[in-house]
Amino acid sequence: xxxxxxxxxxxxxxxxxxxxxxxxxxxxxxxxxxxxxxxxxxxxxxxxxxxxxxxxxxxxxxxxxxxxxxxxxxxxxxxxxxxxxxxxxxxxxxxxxxxxxxxxxxxxxxxxxxxxxxxxxxxxxxxxxxxxxxxxxxxxxxxxxxxxxxxxxxxxxxxxxxxxxxxxxxxxxxxxxxxxxxxxxxxxxxxxxxxxxxxxxxxxxxxxxxxxxxxxxxxxxxxxxxxxxxxxxxxxxxxxxxxxxxxxxxxxxxxxxxxxxxxxxxxxxxxxxxxxxxxxx
Length: 281
What we know:
Helices cover 11% and strands 35% of the residues. It is built from three helices and 20 strands.
């Protein structure tokens, strides 16, 4: 099994950045889901509510996060800046304190997206002094794992074999195939044992590191968003087809496996790395 793509999403729900190499951390790849958009009540906002967020493109250098959109000048955020005031935000069942990136970022978002439920959106940054742990039921004794603003796990692993099986099923129904970008994975591999094997618990051992898939990723309407256009060409697909392909006992649409790092913090991970997949925890 070979790693074929690595991607980070610095701002949750915005576009991704493709990498040839990165570094493994307990909370994922560096800067992944380090920022997110919230409404005035501090609730997270994603492509579920605003599919056009897919068209906002982030870039990172050693000092700056830059967010671009063709319709207006870019927004620049210093990676290292003094922030004292924390604001409460909520993400699924997590209530945490985060740093607000301030009025300039909020005004930039409002200029582009308009008001959200009558108020400006805000851009917040994860507070690394307050860890957000993975739920204990997905961990073995003495294991630990944290994440930033990802839904619940530091890594999402997907396979090209599963995508090929999905697209075969879509074509058989007369539907258009979809790209891997719809699924917003951090690590893409060519295949495991067979399509959708990554929905089961596996250990993935690479050069100096071990990842563990602990939970199948249940998909939501975000996968119906065309990531290049920020629109939903078919609000039912590929969700409906994934439901029909579901090999699990529980109902739903699943694609990709949520994973944690078991060993290798600080180790490099690269496109082209070979992995060995061992079923089970």
